[in-house]
Amino acid sequence: MKKLTEGSVAKTLIKISLPMMGGLFSILSFNLVDNYFVGKLGHTELAAMSLIFPIVMIFITIALGLAVGATSVISRAIGEGNQDKVRRLTTDSLTLSFLIVCVALIIGYSSLDTVFIFMGADDKLLPLIREYMEIWYAGMLFVIIPMVGNGAIRATGDTHIAAAIMIIAAITNAILDPMFIFGIGFIPAFGIRGAAIATTISKAITLIASVIVLHRKYHMLTIQFSTLKKTIESWKRIAHIAFPAALTNVLTPLSMGVITSIVARYGHEAVAAFGVSGRIQSFSLILLMGVSMGLAPFVGQNTGAHKEERVKQAITFSFLFAVLWGVVVAGILFFYGRFFTSLFSSNPLVLKIGELYFLILPISYGMEGIRMMSSSAFNARGYPLIPTTLTIVKMFGLYIPLVLLGSHLMQVRGIFFALTTTNIIIGIASYYFVRSKILSNQKRLP
Fold first, then answer.
1. Dist CA 240 CA 96 (whole Å)
2. Structural domain boundaries of the chain?
3. Which of 4, 100, 210, 364 is deepest in the core (most CB within 10 A)?
4. What band does 445 get if pLDDT is binned at 50, 70 and 90?
5. SS3 372
């Protein structure tokens, strides 16, 4: 395990963040690659993928919440130097994730049609959505549990291995996508269903790899049975971080699902443009995501070791990085947003809406980065309620009301202005809370 409690703060944070940027690049490529190949089938299939994306992200963000909880409690245990505690928490985080998969499967299958009809799926899109989601739900085990295992690996500070697992899965998906979507040799053309098959196979690889690394390299798993009381105590510690973090993560795609249903009023082309633009946006913010993921184990280990000054220095550095990168990305997308959209669709209306998106949204990326860093820091400290509260306010107090108002006043353009305004307001609020609760606070948060 790598000790993050010594050495230069900036150098250490960059060192553990860079591999995660590569890993995130590969994972985000899952959606980009899927959209690229599915887009070759037609803009109707691409629109179906745009409707699918928010729902898939709800379940993925549940897994991310569990991973955040695992990273937080395990990294603090590592900082304390308690290896027995590390093994117990790692094992219990995986068993908890398995139970949640079982519940998620039941919810997903039973509500499939209802959810997507609510989001605006018509008779053309719904059969395509069913083809994809029936396979994806069946492979959910391979999506959620490996993400939690990867969170445990990140807690050690060895982000190289965590990133390598993600990269291998993404490469596998890129190879399998065209094979299963269009067919090759004895493999028939599955169409949009093929994208789900490729994803499931690729994610299964991450499950195997994560368990092997945790067990053989770091000896972080135990086969010793614990009492039910102790297991529940571990689950509570993980859930204290995981459930608020999962709620925070789930609210984002849930609200985006509502917003997508509003965008759907303007046609399939608008939905396709909104979906593609969102994925390009995620890709452009990958450096910020990488730093926020690297910040979590750094803050966790140093919190466990009671090294408060290092925590403050790391957060300050991450904020400065977020603002600078936000400016760079805004400049690039302002001039080349239409070009990036054209990589996924040649439809003139899709290109026009995508270009409009990138003329407006990027000015808020710096503030969105500050929100990411703040959320990561609070969760790593074992104090998740502030980012959760801010997310609730963001979604229900700002996002949805402003989008409805903007849509009414300026149609699609108004939606984009509403999203931008919300990001800026929440970014400022996040900075305020971090400054008052951590940067100016001499006592360690609970």
1. 13
2. 9-439
3. 4
4. very low
5. helix
> What's the pLDDT at 160?
84
Handedness of CA 61, 67, 70, 73 (dihedral sign): negative
Q: Which amino acid is at 324?
A: L
Whole-model pTM over 0.85: no
Q: Which two tokens stand for residue 379?
A: 């969760």
For 341-359, write each residue's pLDDT tens digit. 888 777 888 888 888 889 9
55: closest CA among 158, 7, 125? Answer: 125
List the structure tokens of 47: 């629109």
Structure tokens at 65: 């919440």
Distance of alpha carbon 265 from alpha carbon 407, whole angstroms: 10
Alpha helices in 185-227 (DSSP H): 192-212
Helix (H) or strand (E) holding 29: helix 9-39
Smallest CA-to-CA distance from 194 within 205, 183, 209 is with: 183
Query: Can you give the length of the chain in residues?
Result: 446
What is the C-alpha separation between 97 and 71, in angstroms, rounded? 14
Secondary structure (3-state) at 121: coil
Contact 24, 159 (CB under 8 A): no
Give per-residue pLDDT as tens, 117-134: 887 788 888 888 988 998
